[in-house]
Amino acid sequence: MIEARDLTKRYGDKTAVDHLSFNVEAGRVTGFLGPNGAGKSTTMRLILGLDRPHAGTATIDGRKYADLDQPLRTVGALLEAKAMHPGRSAYNHLLFLAQTQGLPRSRVDHVLDLVGLGEVARKRTGGYSLGMGQRVGIAVAMLGDPQVLLLDEPVNGLDPEGILWIRNLMKQLAAEGRTIFVSSHLMNEMAVTADHLIVIGRGKLIAESSTQEFIERSSDKYVLVRSPDAARLADVIAAEGGKAEPQGEGNSHSGLLRVTGLDAARIGELAAADRVVLHELTPRLASLEEAYMELTADSSEFGAGATPAALQTTASTTATSSTTASSTTGSSTTGQDSQ
Amino acid sequence: MTTTSPAAPSAAPIAAPPATHHVGFGHLMLAEWTKIRSVRSTVWTLLLFVVITIGFTGLFTWLTESNWTGPHAADRDATIVANPVGFILGAGIGLGQLTICVLGVLVITSEYSTGVIRSSLLAVPRRLPMLAAKAAVFALLIAVLAEIVSFACFFLGSSILHSKVPVTISDQNVLRAVLGAGLYLAVLGLFALAVGLLLRHTAAGITTVIGIVLVLPILSGLLPGSWGAHINAYLPEQAGSLIYSAHQTSDQLLSAWQGFGVFCLWTAVLLAAGAYLLQRRDA
C-alpha cells in the first residue's frame, strides 16, 4: 500500500504538489488522473524519494522508499520513457540494476522475455523506438518481482497491441494482489484499466473514488427527442414529471428536446398516446471524457487563455448535439467495458 | 514492433523472486563495473589514453634524442639530464591526462544527461553507496591501467634516451615517480568525477576540469612574488604532478608526497561537496 500524507512540493514560487493525501491499496489498479502539469509525475517522484518534499510524507507499506533494502524487490517504477544510455544495451541496463539488488542474470533474461524484447536486448538502446524503450522500462519495473508498481504514463508510445498488452498485464498483476499505481492524462484509458481513481489538478486532490462510482456520478443520462410539435411534447413530458429543455441548433426551432427524468420507452409511449409525431428518439450517456474535462477544466495548468486547446475544451463541454453524439457512443462503450 | 510482439502476459507467468540474501558493497561495485564497461565511450577514451600517452612519450623522447645538443649547449637538455624520469613521464601524461579528465566527468554526467541517474538512485536510494562504489571502481580501473601505461612509457622513453641520458628504474626516486604517475592519474580521474558530480553537465564539467588542469597553472605562473608562487604550488595539477618527477628543485615549496597530499585533499573536498549535494538535490 502506498500512503501519501500532506505531500507538498514547490519549485520556486510554483506549487507542483499541494497538500496531497491519498492511499493506493493493494490488489487493484489505481489510476492517477490529471491534465498535463497537474503534478502526477512529481508526486510519483516524491513517493520514490527522487525529489524531496517541502512537507508531508510518502510511505510504501509503512516505510519510506529510502529506507527499503533492495528497493527494486519491493517497488518497481516506470518513470520517463527511454531513460537509458543510448550506447548501452537493454540487457546491460537491466544487468547493472539486477546486480545492485543481488539478483541473478536469469532474472534479466526472464523480464526481457516477459516484455518480448529477448531478441533485440543485446543491441544498443539508441536505436530503439519509443515503444521498445517503454517495454524496457516495464522490464526494469518488473525486474525485482515487486509487490508495488508505479507506472507513469505507461501506454505512451505503444501501438494498440502494446496498449492491450500492458492493460492486461496491469490487471493480472493487481489480481495477484499487487499494488498498481498508474498515471495517465487520458480518462478513457483509465476507465478501462483502473479499478479506482485518484484525480488531481494543480497538485490538489479533485476526486477519489472507484472507477464505477466515478462513471456513474459523472455520467449524465438523457434522451434526445426531435419532433415537429416539440412545444406540445414538452408539456406532456413535464406533466409526467420529466424535464424537457429545447436544444437550439443556433436559434432556429429545430424541434430538438433534451429530456431527463424519463426513459426513451416512456417518452415514446407518451408521444404515441398524444399522437405527437417523433423524428428522433435517442438515449444518450454524456461522455466520460467530458465529465473529466469539466472536473479538471479550472485546474488545467496550461489550459488558461485563448489557446486553441482551451477553445476546444470549451467547445466540447458545451457541445452541440452533433458533437456530443459522436463522443457519446465511444464513451458509453468504454464505460461498459470497465464493468 | 511486429517482430518483437510480446507473449500474452498469461502465457508468461511471473516467477517467484529468487531467495533473498544480503546485498553488499561488492554488488554495487559489480553494478558500477557493468555500467562503465558497457558503453563504448569508456573503451574509446581509455584506448585514446593509452595511444596518446605512450605515443607522445615515444615521439618527444625520440625528437629530443635525435636533436640532442648536450646539457652545456641547451637549457632544455640540462633539465632533462637533471630529471630524466620527469621528462619521460611528463611528455605523455601532459596530453594523455586530458582523456582521464574527460572520462572522469563523463562517468557521472552521462547518467544525468541520459536519465540513468534516476534508475541508479531508485536502485540505491541512500545514494552515497552508489557514489562510493562508482568512485572506487573508476579509480581502481584508472589506477591499474595508468600504472601499466606509466611503466610502459618509462621503459619506452628510457630506452630511446639511453644513449644520451641513461636512467633505470633502480635510480633514486625513479620507481616512486613511475608508480606515482599512475596514482596521480587515478586521483585526477576522481577529481574530474567530483567536478562532474557538482556540475551535472558534461560540457561544463569537461571545460572546468581542463581549465583547472591546463589553464590555471599558466595564469597563476604569471602571478608575482612569493604569494603567487604559493598559489601556484598549491594548485591541484601543480601539486599533484610533483609525484611523477624524481627531482626536487631548490625553489620547490612542496615535496613530492606533500604535493600529492595537497592534490588528494583538493579531490576529497570536491568529492565531499559533491556527495553532500547528491544527498540534498532532487535527482
Account of the 3D structure:
The complex is a heterodimer of chains A (339) and B (283). Chain A is of the alpha/beta class and 339 residues long. Chain A folds into three domains: 216 residues, P-loop containing nucleotide triphosphate hydrolases (Rossmann fold), CATH 3.40.50; 64 residues, 2-Layer Sandwich (Alpha-Beta Plaits); 50 residues, no CATH class. In chain A, 38% of the residues lie in helices and 24% in strands. Chain A has twelve helices and 13 strands. A six-stranded mixed β-sheet of chain A has the order 5-6-7-3-8-9, sandwiched between helices. In chain A, helix 5 links the parallel strand 6 and strand 7. In chain A, helix 2 packs across helix 3 and helix 3 packs across helix 4. Chain B is mainly alpha-helical and 283 residues long. Chain B has one domain. Chain B is 73% helix and 0% strand. Chain B is built from eleven helices and no strands. In chain B, helix 1 crosses helix 6 and helix 3 packs across helix 4. The longest helix of chain B has 34 residues. Chain B is globular and about 65 Å long. At the A-B interface, helix 2, helix 3, helix 4 and helix 5 of A face helix 1, helix 4 and helix 5 of B.
Task: List key phrases describing it.
heterodimer; A: 339 residues; alpha/beta; Rossmann fold; Alpha-Beta Plaits; 3 domains; four-stranded antiparallel beta sheet; 12 helices; 13 strands; 38% helix; 24% strand; B: 283 residues; mainly alpha; 11 helices; 73% helix; 0% strand; globular; disordered N terminus
What is the CATH superfamily of the largest domain in chain A? P-loop containing nucleotide triphosphate hydrolases
Cα Rg of chain A = 24 Å
Q: What is the string of SSEs of chain A from the N terminus onward? A: EEEHEEHHHEHEHEEHEHEEHEHHH
Shape of chain B from CA axes? globular
Please, how many domains of chain A? 3
Find the biggest chain interface: A-B, 63 and 48 residues
Shape of chain A: elongated
* β-strand number of chain A: 13
Mean pLDDT of chain B: 90
Strand proportion of chain A: 15-25%
- The radius of gyration over CA of chain B amounts to 23 Å
| Unreliably modeled segments of chain B | 1-13
Helix content of chain A: 25-40%
Number of domains of chain B: 1
User: Sheet bearing the most strands of chain A, described?
Assistant: 6 strands, mixed
CATH class of the largest domain in chain A: Alpha Beta
CATH architecture classification name of the largest domain in chain A: 3-Layer(aba) Sandwich
* Strand/helix succession of chain B: HHHHHHHHHHH
Biggest pleated sheet of chain B: none
